[in-house]
Amino acid sequence: MRPTKMKSAFLKTRLLLAAMVAVASLTATAHAAAPGITGPTFNLTAQPAFLNQPDGSSVYSWGYGCNGAPSGFAPAAITGASCPSMQVPGPTLIVTEGQTVTVNLTNGLPSSAGNTSILFPGFNVTSSGGTTGLLAQEAAPGGSVTYTFVAGSPGTRAYYSGTQGDLQVEMGLYGAVIVLPAHVPAACSTGLPTTNPGANLTAEAHWGEADYRLSAAAYDHPKTCYDREYLFQFSEMDANIHAQALAQVTALSGCIAGAAGCSLTVPTEPYHPGYFMINGRSMPDDMDGNYAVEYPHQPYNGNPHMHPGEQVLLRIIGQGRWQHPFHEHANHVRILARDANLIVSATDPNSLAGPALFTTTTTPGLAMDGIFYYTGRGLNWDMYAHNPTSTDPLATLGCTPDANGYNTGAPTAVNYFEWCQDHNKPLQVAPFGDVAAGGPVTLPDANIFTNGNWYSGSPYLGPNATTRATGTTSDFLPSNTQGNPANERGFAFMWHSHNEREITTNNLFPGGMMMMMLIDSREFVIDEQN
Ligand SMILES: [Cu+2]
User: Fold this and answer.
1) At the topology level of CATH, where does 22-193+206-216+234-260+300-347 sit?
2) Domain boundaries in the chain?
3) What average pLDDT score do residues 57-86 get?
4) Paired strand residues for 175
5) In angstroms, what is the span from residue 160 Cα to ligand 1's centroid?
6) Closest residue by Cα to residue 484 from 467, 503, 499
7) Which residues have CB less than 5 Å away from ligand 1 (the ion)?
8) How far is the CA of 26 from the centre of ligand 1 (A)?
9) Cα(517) to centroid of ligand 1, in Å?
10) What pLDDT, on a 0 to 100 scale, did the predictor assign at position 503?
């Protein structure tokens, strides 16, 4: 319970941004990655616990968790990972193509909740132990069941309860399986772009950034290389269902499983969800760190960051019973695969044929992999505020287009991956300070319109960008924006459900399925740890 949570939402957002733009050496920032546990044997349990919501409520839920310490955690660059005995979503199971995966599930739910199980759609599962259920072999209360399957092909898939799914999935019994490709194409191990192999890794190394990827490719295909990745699981909760489950479980506490009356009769219709979650959390909680102590049963966050030009793999799963039209602002998402089926051209297997989506609509049960990137191409102004007449060396950097038009020749440059066609094109007609005149618009004084936490005070990326835009010689910043010695300035884009009710928490805006994606200038170190 965190009763001051809503009140502190904006303060928290400010603190978060302050942390993000703080000295580059500070690492206590909140980013995402796709964290999980490694196998190939997983000992899981299904247990009850309470989930924190930003309105201060604690919602009784069921979730999968670790039955003892897992084999390991991934990605390796995240330290301080944990796997509690109950979490929502359940532990992300990370395996490699070709591995034989064993999942031992112990039912730690209250006896009145009855049997439980796991479905692994997309895999050929054999079961042992337990009792036979309608869709899967089930574990009785206190009992166990074992599932075995070969991770035959790469990709992102869902797993969830196969027992009384209308109640058990609603209560939180779901998670993700990520199968990494066994044959990472050579083109991917050196990174993108292909015109400049290895450049993104060179850039990361130059700025001291760690590699948080689980792999270098999503599939055994050279067009599925990526530089960064995030996993988003969408779900919703009707707290009334959870309250009724808790009341009945409490009333039936200690009853003998299978005895007359030792079962729940919780109606799951009519359905009126009030909590809309990404990775088990609602905004702004989803922008806190992975494994943050405030959320002992919601370890995974949703807070994507990226640099211009990076190929970002989005692993997206609809885990609830509603569709959620999730909009990734700033670009479309090129879909690679649905339910781990890579979408290739019917006539040319070397070409991918997935659609570019404006909203990645999360169909219940459906998993998608897609690639997102941002370069500023098409803005028609120089987002780095370059100025050939400047005396500031950061404002006079060159831009040499590669075959695709981007500045990729020098991966250590601050303007690595700049779209050169807009180089030296000022945004402002009558600029302040160091920005050359002649652009299409006249911006108000930064002091007038930059009150707010998600605007950096500058329309430009890079060191000294605000100083150059406002023309002050000191590191003066417009009021109520965040400053730091390294002058990191990012572009913030809202990523959110386009069903407006889903960006509320219990009918209060803002909340729900929303997060801020940040385009960070190259010299800003993106730390996806905690
Ligand atoms: Cu939108």
Assistant:
1) Immunoglobulin-like (2.60.40)
2) 22-193+206-216+234-260+300-347
3) 95
4) 159
5) 29
6) 467
7) 327
8) 31
9) 12
10) 97
